[in-house]
């Protein structure tokens, strides 16, 4: 997905499923043996089983993250993280809850109302306190299961769990540089079954507070983050009135440093999100030639994501046919699917908080025209050039520069620009080639960081010949000259939009393409679509569902 901001759309899962089932009658399962035989013969690549981790593996991974974070913070500090909050869809209906990324990164907990405190003390043994709402049978009747302390410990590995109401008195005690221990009823679970000393981990913190040198690290909001971090904003405003030597500091860079490099544990989750996405793309390509509307194709994505138990999409799916493919963040999916047009599909599943981001452009009818192929092959060559630039120690901008050089040459050859060394290319290629990927589709990063093993990002050059591109240029003599020169090529390629996007991880000697199994070249795509169409039975929507066609 192109880097930028746009509002998330609420999807009616039921409607997507109805549309998908109406289109496809061959998805039904069967016995394990029968499914295995079908999978062996199938061209469409079914996503492998999800990765499975033992409690010990998960706890070890999370503990390692918390210890590394504590080491970066230093002993004269404290970290405070709040859980995410419900977001209103309409009236008294909320969007599905999604945990705040950094709290989830350290705990794997999806509980609302959770709060995490880490006091590094000695980095090898930081003090960790999880504040958790006490289970409430009345609330669970309406809203579902809440974590028991034992379940929270099994997930996170945190052994000191206090009732959420203890957070305020605990913070008052910290401000007063006073060791605090709740009454027994306030302790839901204690480390190793025994209570640690009330002063555990706080000696260095209190000493630095007395000198006015201690830091309280939080996800301090700013700019767009204010929309997501309301509670942090309110807490920080109140704390700043009397910091008592514990001064507010942003924690963003710590998490950016940690999350930029994915562990083998994280890469398994990310690969599964990519695998689910690949299956969704393949099934969509297989049915596109017989679909009438973009939303019918998108329904196959939604169906596949849900069928493979993805959390959701990592961002609203982009399914644009013909001129709609030239809009970078086209999310309406209301256009017609015409066999002679290209279809651009930018879609990625999210699994266990890790998002894929994959784009393919393919002919809706199964065959590229000559003009479409000419544009497509420029973008493909640009992506290959970007791949060759990926290596440990390289700068992020080098990947874009490698891609951009090929785009400039290609646009000049196509006749869409007259000067490769000018900014003319931006009329047709107006975004960066890459963005970081992980728990967000546009993930956190450290500015200026050089590529290193474990970093994951996208490679996604594109060319977009928008039908109104020349009309919207400022009326200047220079632009009038440019328009006259490129007009013949513009008319030839008008309405063609191409983007090719893959997800790569930097390795010790180069890179690995996580989405490499999804066809990219023209021969591969055409061969896949010709064969894959035979693997699905397409029962087009009943006549009463196709009310719009008579008006087309």
Could you explain the architecture of this structure?
- The protein has 552 residues and is an alpha+beta fold.
- Helix content is 37%, strand content 15%.
- Helix 1 (13-23) crosses helix 12 and helix 11 packs antiparallel against helix 12.
Uncertain spans: 4-40, 540-552
Number of β-strand runs:
20
Q: Could you give the distance between the termini?
A: 30 Å
For the sheet with most strands, the description reads: 7 strands, mixed
* Rg from Cα: 26 Å
| Annotation field: number of helices | 16
Helix content: 25-40%
What class would the helix/strand composition place it in?
A: alpha+beta
Strand content: 5-15%
Strand order of the largest sheet: 7-6-5-4-1-8-9
Average of pLDDT: 90
Net shape: elongated
Give a short overview.
With 552 residues, this protein is of the alpha+beta class.
How is this fold's topology laid out?
Elements (H helix, E strand, L loop, with lengths): L12 H11 L8 H10 L13 H19 L3 E6 L5 E3 L2 E2 L6 H7 L7 E5 L7 E6 L4 H7 L5 H8 L4 E3 L3 H9 L11 E3 L13 H8 L3 E5 L11 H10 L6 E5 L1 H9 L3 H24 L6 H14 L4 E2 L4 E4 L20 E6 L1 E3 L2 E2 L2 E6 L6 H19 L7 H19 L41 E4 L2 E3 L12 H17 L3 E3 L2 E6 L2 E4 L8 H11 L20
Helix pairs in contact: 1-12, 11-12, 11-16, 13-14
């Amino acid at each position: 997905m192109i880097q930028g901001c746009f509002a998330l759309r609420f999807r009616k899962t039921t409607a997507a499923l109805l549309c998908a089932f109406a289109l496809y009658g061959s998805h039904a399962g069967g016995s394990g043996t029968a499914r295995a035989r079908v999978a062996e013969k199938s061209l469409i690549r079914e996503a492998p089983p999800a990765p499975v981790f033992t409690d010990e593996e998960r706890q070890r991974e999370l503990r390692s993250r918390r210890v590394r974070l504590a080491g970066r913070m230093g002993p004269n500090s404290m970290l405070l993280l709040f859980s995410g909050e419900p977001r209103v869809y309409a009236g008294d209906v909320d969007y599905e809850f999604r945990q705040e990324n950094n709290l989830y990164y350290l705990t794997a907990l999806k509980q609302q109302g959770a709060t995490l405190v880490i006091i590094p003390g000695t980095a090898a043994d930081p003090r960790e306190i999880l504040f958790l709402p006490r289970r409430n049978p009345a609330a669970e009747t309406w809203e579902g299961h809440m974590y028991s302390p034992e379940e929270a410990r099994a997930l996170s590995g945190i052994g000191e769990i206090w009732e959420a109401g203890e957070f305020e008195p605990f913070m008052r005690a910290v401000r007063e540089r006073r060791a605090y221990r709740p009454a027994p009823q306030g302790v839901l679970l204690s480390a190793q079954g025994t209570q640690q000393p009330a002063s555990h981990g706080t000696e260095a913190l209190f000493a630095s507070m007395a000198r006015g040198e201690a830091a309280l690290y939080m996800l301090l909001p700013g700019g767009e983050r204010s929309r997501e971090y309301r509670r942090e904003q309110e807490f920080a405003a109140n704390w700043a009135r009397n910091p008592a030597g514990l001064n507010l500091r942003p924690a963003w860079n710590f998490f950016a440093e940690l999350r930029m490099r994915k562990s083998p544990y994280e890469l398994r989750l990310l690969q599964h999100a990519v695998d689910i996405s690949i299956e969704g793309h393949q099934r969509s390509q297989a049915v596109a030639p017989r679909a009438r509307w973009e939303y019918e194709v998108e329904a196959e994505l939604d169906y596949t994501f849900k069928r493979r138990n993805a959390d959701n999409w990592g961002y609203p799916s982009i399914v644009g046919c013909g001129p709609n493919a030239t809009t970078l963040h086209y999310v309406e999916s209301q256009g017609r699917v015409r066999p002679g047009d290209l279809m651009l599909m930018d879609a990625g599943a999210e699994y266990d908080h890790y998002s894929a981001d994959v784009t393919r452009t393919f002919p809706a009818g199964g065959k590229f025209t000559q003009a479409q192929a000419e544009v497509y092959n420029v973008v493909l060559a640009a992506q290959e050039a970007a791949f060759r630039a990926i290596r440990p120690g390289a700068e992020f901008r080098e990947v874009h520069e490698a891609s951009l050089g090929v785009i400039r040459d290609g646009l000049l050859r196509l006749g869409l620009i007259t000067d490769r060394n000018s900014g003319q290319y931006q009329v047709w290629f107006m975004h960066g080639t890459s963005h970081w990927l992980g728990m967000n589709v546009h993930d956190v990063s450290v500015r200026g960081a050089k590529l290193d093993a474990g970093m994951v990002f996208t490679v996604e050059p594109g060319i977009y010949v928008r039908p109104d591109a020349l009309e919207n240029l400022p009326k200047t003599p220079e632009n009038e000259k440019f328009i006259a020169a490129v007009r013949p090529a513009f008319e030839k390629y008008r309405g063609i939009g191409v983007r090719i996007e893959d997800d790569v991880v930097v390795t010790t000697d180069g890179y690995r393409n996580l989405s490499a199994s999804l066809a990219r070249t023209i021969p591969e795509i055409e061969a896949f679509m010709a064969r894959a169409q035979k693997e699905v039975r397409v029962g087009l929507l009943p006549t009463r569902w196709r009310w719009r066609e008579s008006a087309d």
